[in-house]
Amino acid sequence: MNIAAPMPLYRQLLGARFEVLPPTVRALHERAGHHRYRGKVEVERGHGALSRLCAWATRLPGEGRGTLEVEIDSTAQVERWARIFAGRAMRSRIWTRDSLLCERLGLVTFTFRLYVEPLAAGHAIVWRVASVRVLGVPLPLRWFRGVHAREYERDGRYRFDVAAALPWIGLLVHYRGWLDVD
């Protein structure tokens, strides 16, 4: 009897589009089990009181530059991520529901539609917010038009660029950098 291995979350969501992604992006998202990656990151943070409160509620990283460690525990049903910025972990839980990627960060659960879009060199995964709930209460989607994320490859390295800004509050966080994925 030949039993097929469970399909990783991102491959489930992206289907055939997964195949056009660059090698480092595919590798990061198709490995089952526990994996650790290292790289560099630059983090900008908003400075207002409401910005700091929102960042606290979602456990966003502090401002700075330096080493980033990412630990991923992955199964076909759920992924647990720990993004470790300057010794402080931003933990999240990721799963799929109704063809959407769901991510729980602190008190907030986001759902995202994933797209594969062409870049000058290769393709990127682009995350677009589909809904947001705080402690189960839905928030207006229009508040989250300033939340953007993409994953891509440049110079043989996995790259990421994540930004979150809210109306009337401004920048919460913008972090970007790279990971060695071999």
Structural account:
The chain is built from 3 helices and 11 strands. By secondary structure, it is mostly beta strands. It has one domain (9-180): Lipocalin. A 10-stranded antiparallel beta barrel has the order 1-2-3-4-5-6-7-9-10-11. It is globular and about 40 Å long. It starts with 8 loop residues before the first helix and ends with a strand. The mean pLDDT is 92.
Give a quick summary of the entry:
With 182 residues, the protein is mainly beta.
Task: Reconstruct the topology from this structure.
Blueprint: H1 9-14, H2 23-30, E1 33-45, H3 49-57, E2 64-74, E3 78-85, E4 88-97, E5 100-105, E6 108-119, E7 122-134, E8 137-138, E9 146-154, E10 157-166, E11 170-180
Antiparallel strand pairs: 1-2, 1-11, 2-3, 3-4, 4-5, 5-6, 6-7, 7-8, 7-9, 9-10, 10-11
Which fold name corresponds to the CATH topology?
Lipocalin
CATH architecture: Beta Barrel
Q: How many DSSP helices?
A: 3
Strand order of the largest sheet: 1-2-3-4-5-6-7-9-10-11
The SSE order reads: HHEHEEEEEEEEEE
Mean pLDDT: 92
The computed structural class is: mainly beta
CATH class: Mainly Beta
What fraction strand? over 45%
Unreliable runs: none
Cα-atom Rg, whole angstroms?
A: 16 Å
List how many beta strands DSSP finds. Answer: 11
Give the fraction of residues assigned to helices. 10-25%
